[in-house]
Every structure is written in structure tokens, then in C-alpha cells.
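Retro notes - structure team

What went well: the batch runner handled both jobs without manual restarts.
What didn't: labels got mixed up in the shared folder, which is why I'm recording both outputs here explicitly, each with its sequence directly above its C-alpha cells.

Job 1
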Amino acid sequence: MPPPDPEIARWFAEEVQPHEAALRAWLRSRFPTLKDADDLVQESYTRLLRTRRTGSIACARAFLFVTARNLALNQLRHLRHERPEGITELDASGVLDERTAIPESVARAEDLQLLIHAIQALPDRCRQIMTLRKIYGFSQREVAQRLHISEHTVEAQGAIGLRKCIEYFRRNGYSRGFRP
């Protein structure tokens, strides 16, 4: 593991750590059936730092809370599949914060930013096709006509682009479903 960057360490101490107590309290109140909030907090920190090393984070607090919430929900889903009789149905009001508009907006912006980075990393033809198909919503036929290529090429290059984007997400520790 590389030595910590002093700038990131300073940013973490000033922008992230002050929210730790609130995050732990929030996790305990919203997800009382989960045994260990420490693991969720630690994994949230890991993902936050990984993202910070590859780019900027608009609001560390929002990113931290949204990441912890998503990890907690994933853990609950896992428990439900592991022991279906031991978990009762969750009330959505117990999972959602009244102020989710801001964290959700930030999460959406960060999702979109990650998708943009993934698409920018693609080879030229894949990038053109993915941009026209996924960002602008063009049909396969419209993309083929616009780029003067066959629909089969659009389909093949689109599949390659999608696979490479998924690989990019995995390499960057992204486990949430993308919500365009």
C-alpha cells in the first residue's frame, strides 16, 4: 500500500472524521438489526478514500452517509437471503432520512461522474457509441446511421463498451447499481 498523501490525510481529518460520531449514531438508529456499525464505517472510509484518490468529492459528508447507507442495505439484503426467516420486512421510513434529497443528489452526481470517467476511458469507437446510446438515448439504428456503420457494429461495440465500463466500476470499488 502506498504511503498516505499528506493532502488527503489533511482533507480526511478536516472533512470526514468530524462526521464519524454522527454516522455511527445514524447507522445504529436506522439499521438497528445490524450488529457491527464499525465495519460499515470502515468500509465507507475505504470507498471514500479510494474515490478521493481518483478524483474529487463534492461533499464528503453526503458521500460518506450515502455509501454507509448503501453498504447497510446490501448487508441487510445478504442477511435476508442467508436467513430469510430471521429478518422482518423493513419499513421504508426507517431506511430513508428526511433529508435524503441532498445525499441522493450528490450520489447521483458522483454516479454520473464515475460513468463519465468510465466512458472517457473507452477506445474511440466504443466511446462514441456508448455516448450516443447511453447518454443521448439514440437507438441502435440511429447510431449506425449517424456514424455510417452497420447496426451489428453498433451492437458489438456497445457490448464491448458496456463490459469495459463494468470492469472500470469494479476496479474502482463501485458496488452500487448505477442510476442514470
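Job 2
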Amino acid sequence: MPKIIGSSLSEHREQVRNRVFDALRHQLYERGFDAVTLAGVAAEAGVGRTAMYNHFPDKESLLVAFVEAEATRYVSRMTAAVQAAGDPVDKLAIFVRLQLRSLAEYHLPPGTALGSALGPAAYRRIAAHADPITATLREILREGMDAGRIPEEDTSILIPMITAALGSRQVVDVEPGQLDAAIEAAVRFVLRAVGARV
């Protein structure tokens, strides 16, 4: 019988998932999604292959569970950071910084590449996690427009343009010592692009 980690079965499951996600996060950062294997993640996590398959029957289910957990944590952090700022332009700058830091940390294939790596149902589950992020951006822009800090524009046009700009890996694929400067340049770009009154 495998050794139980933690004081209960539910705590054991949670700790196994955390170890697996830590290993997957490391491998995504080091090698990218295509090079990840369940056996490799299990070995790095110190989890038996049978236990790994009990939790995640295939690579796709592992990625979906990982993205769901990361997205939930990210949305909570983003919401708290944005709500802590009083000014809508500051909120937009915080939003941009968080999005780019997140992009710099993970090496998931973007957009259409991710769609081809996953089945349609799995891709829809992952894509649904962008909804609260998009809703937050819409609220920030609307608040800025209502306050006269951002010129009135159609948010259905602005949002895809901003998200396209923030989805470019070229912005964050820089030397580590240059990342802060690259992110701040992107913040200034987005603020200028929406006509924010700083």
C-alpha cells in the first residue's frame, strides 16, 4: 500500500497534486509543453507512475487541471491587486504588469497552438478561465471612461487589441535583468494606446 502523505486522504491528494503541479510548472518553464511527459512529471514529483495515472489519466487532463488551479489562484491575486488601487489608470497598469509577469512565468503554447495540442472540450475548459480576466479588463476600462481618465471607445475593440499586445512572448522573452524594463515599456504602450490621462 502506498505511503499516505499528510494526516488524511484528502490532504494526501492535495499534497500529491501540489507536488505534481510544481514539477509540471518547472518542466513547462524549462522545456515547454511538447516535451512534458507524465512519466517525467511523476519522476520529478517523487510520485509513483500508478499514483500519477490515478490522478491524471493523460497529459491533457494534467494540463487542464494545472491551468484551472493556476487560473483560480491568478484571478484571486489579480482581483485583490486591482481592487487595492483606487485610480482606474493605476488599475490598468497593475493589470498589464500581472498579465506580463504571468506570461513570463509559463511556457504554455499560446492560442491556436494550445488549441491544436488539446481536444476541443479540454481547450474550451481552459479558455473559459480567460472570462474573469477579460471581465476585469472591461470593468477597468469602463471605470476609466466613466471617470474621464480614458477616452470613450468601444471596449469590444479595445479588449482584443490589449490582450493581443499582452499575449506576445517577444515582450517577455528577454534577459532576466531586462524583464522589469520590458514590462514597464509595455505598460506605457498600453496606457498610450487607450489614451489614458496619466
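One thing worth noting from job 2: The mean pLDDT is 86.
We'll revisit the folder naming next retro.
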